[in-house]
Amino acid sequence: MIKFNYSLLKLGATLIILALVGCGGTVNLANKPARELYDEGMKAFNEKKYIRAIDYLQAVVFNHGGVSYVDTAQYHLALSYFSNRDYLIAGVEFNRLALNYPSSVYFEQSIFMRAICYFESTPGHYGLDQSDLEKAIKQFEDFIIDFPESAQVNDAREYLAVARGRMAKKYFESAVVYKRIGALKAAQKYYQIVLDDYTGSEFAPKALFETAEINMRLKKFSEAQSGFVNFITLYKEHELAEKATKLSREAAFKSGVFAFDKGEYGDAKEKFESFIKDYPNDDRVNDAKDYLIRIGDGQSLLSEDSHAES
After folding, report:
1. How far, in Å, CA of 192 to CA of 231, rounded?
2. 58 near 26, Cβ under 8 Å?
């Protein structure tokens, strides 16, 4: 099967389009004065005739780089592509302004818009390539740090929340698929990514619950109990809180049984005692007490055997 490098394909397409637009748009305008090109370009932009605006503004940028308003032309060239939903090329043009005109009044806005371009160019479905969304997240984070007083900070935070939510969904759904096919450790790996990197997303509570539930299936009862208790503590109003409470009790009891069955009586004793203390009204309290009696009898027999041998 042939595997395509979509990043290279997108870059190649971008360069080809830029070249075609550059050649096709500027050849007939090359001899026009810079100011005339600029005025025509801005007029077209304001009239939302973005293809025409691109032709004229690109002619200014390519052929009259020394004029004082070239950064304004560059910025509106990028905006024209953006308004025309050519987000890949728009991102290239915003980046060009940031690199070539760092003292421009449009510098800060171009950094912000560059991040939006990555956001908008990402496929909407979480199952498709989300690499541009990861870039958008990084750039929004950097923008918030680098421009804390910017009027765009709140917008950047909103974009960041949406972007992080989409990435969280991608990893969460990957975990769901792995769990469905029985690859439990792989599922936990992806749930953990959600918990570690996207804690504030709507998928974090379910990821924590699912991780604890998988630990139950893997017979890691102590880890499962801890996970369910954490869930109840953090998300006591969540729709799964009641189920988590029930499962935390089950995990606590089973952790004692599991230790008992392995012959780890000291550990089992500690777990059953904790179970009785933490869940005094649970239906399995009497069973836990019975286990403690059996553990006590067993330890007494071991002690008697030890004395007899000595």
Report:
1. 14
2. yes
Say if 92 falls within a structural domain.
yes
**Domain ranges, residue 63:** 1-121
- Provide the Cα torsion 51, 57, 63, 66; round to 10°: -170
Smallest Cα–Cα separation from 59: which of 80, 79, 36?
A: 36
Q: What is the CATH number of the domain that holds 40?
A: 1.25.40.10
Tokens of 102: 């760092």
Q: Does 246 fall in a domain?
A: no
Please give the full DSSP string across 67-106, using - where no structure is assigned. Answer: STTHHHHHHHHHHHHHHTT-HHHHHHHHHHHHHH-TTSTT
3-state SS of 142-176 is HHHHHCCCCCCHHHHHHHHHHHHHHHHHHHHHHHH
C-alpha 22/C-alpha 62 separation (Å) is 8
The reply to whether 128 falls in a domain is no
In tens, the pLDDT along 134-150 reads 999 999 999 999 999 99
For 13, the 3-state DSSP assignment is helix
Q: Along the chain (310 residues), what's the average pLDDT of each consecutive run of 10 residues?
A: 41 49 54 92 97 96 94 98 96 97 97 97 80 94 97 96 94 96 96 94 96 96 96 95 95 94 91 92 92 74 44
pTM: 0.75
Are 53 and 44 spatial neighbours (Cβ–Cβ below 8 Å)? yes
Residue 15 lies in a domain: yes
Whether the CB-CB separation of 73 and 65 falls below 8 Å is answered with no
Count how many domains the chain has: 1
Instruction: Kindly state the helix (H) or strand (E) to which residue 187 belongs, with its residue range.
Output: helix 184-197
- Name 10's Cβ contacts closer than 8 Å, sequence gap at least 6: 88
Q: How many CB atoms lie within 10 A of CB 120?
A: 19
